[in-house]
Amino acid sequence: xxxxxxxxxxxxxxxxxxxxxxxxxxxxxxxxxxxxxxxxxxxxxxxxxxxxxxxxxxxxxxxxxxxxxxxxxxxxxxxxxxxxxxxxxxxxxxxxxxxxxxxxxxxxxxxxxxxxxxxxxxx
Length: 123
Description:
The chain has helices at 20-27, 43-47, 49-58, 73-78, 104-122; strands at residues 14-16, 33-38, 63-68, 86-91, 94-100. It is α/β, with parallel strands linked by helices. Residues 1-9 have low confidence and may be disordered.
């Protein structure tokens, strides 16, 4: 028990979707959602994981989900994901934007525009 109390356990804010049922549950929550469709064999996709975690910490009012296309094939099919990584921005269960490819600057830009549009629609 020699801990000095300074070890911080970073709890991930990115939620892994394990099934189609959990997907349906998460996207029906009414909050904005950003989804990273990934595959363990796709290096550009895997390389985006730390960036996606960072985004999740930055944008606290958005739900960040990750979907492994090999584990939850039905969701990838339903959302017409054909390449990895694919990022979906969703509002009220519907796709608001889609970005294919590992482009951190563009993803950040799209999320900022997404948030702006959500806040604008509330006023």
